[in-house]
UniProtKB/TrEMBL annotation:
<dbReference type="GO" id="GO:0044572">
    <property type="term" value="P:[4Fe-4S] cluster assembly"/>
</dbReference>
<dbReference type="Pfam" id="PF01722">
    <property type="entry name" value="BolA"/>
</dbReference>
<comment type="similarity">
    <text>Belongs to the BolA/IbaG family.</text>
</comment>
<dbReference type="GO" id="GO:0005759">
    <property type="term" value="C:mitochondrial matrix"/>
</dbReference>
<dbReference type="InterPro" id="IPR002634">
    <property type="entry name" value="BolA"/>
</dbReference>
<protein>
    <submittedName>
        <fullName>Bola-like protein</fullName>
    </submittedName>
</protein>
<dbReference type="InterPro" id="IPR036065">
    <property type="entry name" value="BolA-like_sf"/>
</dbReference>
Amino acid sequence: MTTAPGPLEQLIRQRIEAAYAPTVLEIENESHKHRHHAPMQGVTSTETHFKIKVVSSQFAGQRLLQRQRSIYSLFKHEMAMDGGIHAMALVTRTPEEEQK
């Protein structure tokens, strides 16, 4: 069963596409896998955990930590708010790295 992307997932897609013009952007909502975790008790949001793969030439010359920090910076507000994004597992590659 595939569900339509929620508002946070749509926001993630919009911001990453605008900032990085990725050749590949895959977003998987994994929130259902984390519902039983203690920090998620009482949280009603269905959009708290995401697995995201971004392939962009804009990552050329950047270290992994720089890439991830730049993505996280796009979502500072959503990660700070109650019921917002709790975690993002990121894979960030250049097109050349993706080809290997």
